[in-house]
Amino acid sequence: LATCLGGWNEDFELWRVWILSGWKCAAWLLSAFGLGVFAKDKVFDRATDGLSLAFAFGIAILLVVDQWLGTLGLLGAWRGVVALGMLVPGWSVALRLMLREWKLQPQANVNTFWWWPALGAIAALLIAASISPGVMWSTEFGGYDALEYHLQAPKEWMAAGAIRPLEFLAYSGMPNFVEGGFLHLMSFASDARDGAVACQMLHASMLLVSAFVLADCAALFSNTCGVNERVARIVSLCAMLSTPWMIVVGSLAYSESGIVLAFACILNVFARKPKSLPWAGFMLGVLMAVLIGSKASSIILVVPALMAWLALGMGRGYVNWKC
What SS3 state is found at 8? Predict the structure, then answer.
């Protein structure tokens, strides 16, 4: 659907963009998936919504790892060998899972195409993320912030050799976990456009994973509200991905998807009873780091809501829609 809507012409060959820029994003996400599968199995038992939650956990873990590696100046070391090597552990776990058998979800649920109503929004998001920044979205001034801050900071960090505050770019001194992931992808890029589009694809992918995790949360809450679980999933997914602001911001190399991803995962952890409290605490710490590290304003916009949600839910069970 994305290919048909995106078209195929001399200036914009969708498949070529996805192959040349998309493989970097796909390699990063595959490693994140492997790490996430390991973390999810430690926190929870296998469940029907394991795919999206494993992806989200892995993305959060890899963003934290990228921040550490970038701060130590290792992401650009030895011409990207370290950056590539850090993806190998996640690849090994993911490929071992695939080769063994698909156990993350029951096969009956994997084959259900419940998310088809959101296909149009997903296609629009992927197509927009495949177009070079600065071309679309006049409401965001052609992606000015992405070009001047979110992509410029990783570019300058590559030249400086490490993630650090820069005297001429104030944004580089702010929380920048998502930009650390961008730096990881840029270490594989062949040119500026290739790296920028790969970063946009990563940010859009994070938004898609967030949408599916929130759909899982809606399904959990629906059980106590007397709402059909399948309807709750579809409505939640479509409502999020059909919001114009999500498509615009999600398709640019911004940092908002990191906030939404961490927020959705924290809600998911709160709404369930973990198998291992120490592992759940570890993942909550990682998710809170990504939440605040993606954008400092989340301290006043998101954290108070999470604290209130948790406080009101104390002693009332993990799933309580009134909270």
Answer: strand
CB 36 within 8 A of CB 61: yes
CB atoms within 10 A of CB 229: 15
Q: What are the pLDDT digits (tens) for 101-150?
A: 555 454 444 446 788 888 888 988 888 888 888 777 777 676 777 777 78
Instruction: Please state at what angle helix 177-186 crosses helix 192-225, rounded to 10 degrees.
Output: 140
Q: How do residues 19-70 score in pLDDT, each as one tens digit?
A: 777 788 889 999 999 899 888 888 886 654 578 888 899 999 999 999 998 8
Angle between helices 177-186 and 152-160 (to 10 degrees): 60
Structure pTM?
0.86
Q: Any residues with CB less than 8 A from the CB of 234 and at least 6 apart, and which?
A: 114, 115, 117, 118, 215
Measuring CA to CA, which residue among 214, 215, 232 is closest to residue 223? 232
- Contact assessment for residue 233 and residue 219, using Cβ atoms and an 8 Å cutoff: yes
How far, in Å, CA of 284 to CA of 270, rounded? 9
For residues 163 and 176, is the Cβ–Cβ distance under 8 A? yes
CB 182, CB 290: distance < 8 Å: no
Query: DSSP class of residue 84?
Result: H
